[in-house]
Protein backbone atom coordinates (compact mmCIF):
# COMPACT_ATOMS: atom_id res chain seq x y z
CA UNK A 1 0.00 0.00 0.00
CA UNK A 2 2.77 2.43 0.89
CA UNK A 3 4.31 2.30 -2.57
CA UNK A 4 0.96 2.99 -4.25
CA UNK A 5 0.28 5.91 -1.92
CA UNK A 6 3.72 7.30 -2.74
CA UNK A 7 2.85 7.02 -6.42
CA UNK A 8 -0.39 8.96 -5.91
CA UNK A 9 1.45 11.70 -3.99
CA UNK A 10 4.14 11.84 -6.69
CA UNK A 11 1.51 12.19 -9.42
CA UNK A 12 -0.20 15.00 -7.50
CA UNK A 13 3.15 16.75 -7.05
CA UNK A 14 3.70 16.47 -10.80
CA UNK A 15 0.36 18.17 -11.43
CA UNK A 16 1.19 20.99 -9.03
CA UNK A 17 4.74 21.53 -10.32
CA UNK A 18 3.68 21.52 -13.96
CA UNK A 19 0.68 23.78 -13.65
CA UNK A 20 1.00 25.18 -17.18
CA UNK A 21 0.90 21.68 -18.67
CA UNK A 22 -2.03 20.26 -16.71
CA UNK A 23 -4.24 23.29 -15.97
CA UNK A 24 -5.83 25.88 -18.20
CA UNK A 25 -5.34 29.63 -17.76
CA UNK A 26 -8.31 29.76 -15.38
CA UNK A 27 -6.71 27.22 -13.03
CA UNK A 28 -8.81 24.19 -13.91
CA UNK A 29 -7.57 20.78 -15.00
CA UNK A 30 -7.31 20.23 -18.74
CA UNK A 31 -7.79 16.82 -20.38
CA UNK A 32 -4.20 15.74 -19.72
CA UNK A 33 -4.54 16.73 -16.08
CA UNK A 34 -7.78 14.76 -15.80
CA UNK A 35 -6.01 11.64 -17.11
CA UNK A 36 -3.51 11.94 -14.27
CA UNK A 37 -6.27 12.55 -11.73
CA UNK A 38 -8.08 9.43 -12.91
CA UNK A 39 -4.91 7.39 -12.24
CA UNK A 40 -4.76 8.89 -8.75
CA UNK A 41 -8.41 8.08 -8.13
CA UNK A 42 -7.86 4.45 -9.19
CA UNK A 43 -5.02 4.18 -6.66
CA UNK A 44 -7.16 5.70 -3.91
CA UNK A 45 -10.09 3.41 -4.78
CA UNK A 46 -7.85 0.36 -4.50
CA UNK A 47 -5.74 1.36 -1.51
CA UNK A 48 -7.78 3.88 0.49
CA UNK A 49 -11.46 3.39 -0.40
CA UNK A 50 -12.49 5.16 2.81
CA UNK A 51 -10.99 8.37 1.36
CA UNK A 52 -12.74 8.27 -2.02
CA UNK A 53 -14.95 11.25 -1.15
CA UNK A 54 -11.99 13.65 -1.12
CA UNK A 55 -10.75 12.24 -4.43
CA UNK A 56 -14.18 12.56 -6.03
CA UNK A 57 -14.45 16.13 -4.81
CA UNK A 58 -11.10 17.05 -6.38
CA UNK A 59 -12.17 15.40 -9.63
CA UNK A 60 -15.49 17.22 -9.75
CA UNK A 61 -14.11 20.64 -8.78
CA UNK A 62 -11.10 20.29 -11.14
CA UNK A 63 -9.44 23.36 -9.61
CA UNK A 64 -5.79 23.84 -8.77
CA UNK A 65 -6.78 24.46 -5.15
CA UNK A 66 -8.68 21.16 -4.94
CA UNK A 67 -5.63 19.30 -6.25
CA UNK A 68 -3.44 21.04 -3.66
CA UNK A 69 -5.90 20.05 -0.94
CA UNK A 70 -5.90 16.42 -2.11
CA UNK A 71 -2.09 16.45 -2.15
CA UNK A 72 -1.99 17.81 1.39
CA UNK A 73 -4.48 15.21 2.64
CA UNK A 74 -2.67 12.30 1.01
CA UNK A 75 0.70 13.57 2.22
CA UNK A 76 -0.62 13.68 5.78
CA UNK A 77 -1.98 10.15 5.45
CA UNK A 78 1.36 9.01 4.08
CA UNK A 79 3.20 10.62 7.02
CA UNK A 80 0.96 8.85 9.53
CA UNK A 81 1.26 5.61 7.61
CA UNK A 82 5.07 5.74 7.87
CA UNK A 83 4.99 6.26 11.65
Describe the structure.
It is a single chain. With 83 residues, the chain is mainly α. It has one domain (2-82). The protein has helices at 2-17, 19-22, 31-47, 52-61, 64-82. Helix 1 (2-17) packs antiparallel against helix 3 (31-47). The longest helix has 19 residues, at 64-82. The mean pLDDT is 91.
Summarize this entry quickly.
The protein contains five helices and no strands.
Summarize the SSE layout with pairings.
Elements: H1 2-17, H2 19-22, H3 31-47, H4 52-61, H5 64-82
Helix pairs in contact: 1-3, 1-5, 3-4, 4-5
Number of helices: 5
In percent terms, what proportion of residues is strand?
A: under 5%
Mean pLDDT comes to 91
Order of helices and strands: HHHHH
Largest sheet: none
Q: What is the rounded Rg?
A: 12 Å
Fraction of helical residues: over 70%
Tally of separate domains: 1
Structural class: mainly alpha
Looking at the structure, what is the overall shape? globular
Low-confidence blocks of residues? none
Distance from N terminus to C terminus (CA atoms, Å) equals 14 Å
Q: Please report the total strand number as a whole number.
A: 0
Task: Output the keywords.
80% helix; mainly alpha; 83 residues; 5 helices; single chain; globular
Amino acid sequence: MERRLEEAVRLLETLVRNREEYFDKSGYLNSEGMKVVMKIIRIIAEELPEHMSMAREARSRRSYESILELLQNLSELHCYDDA
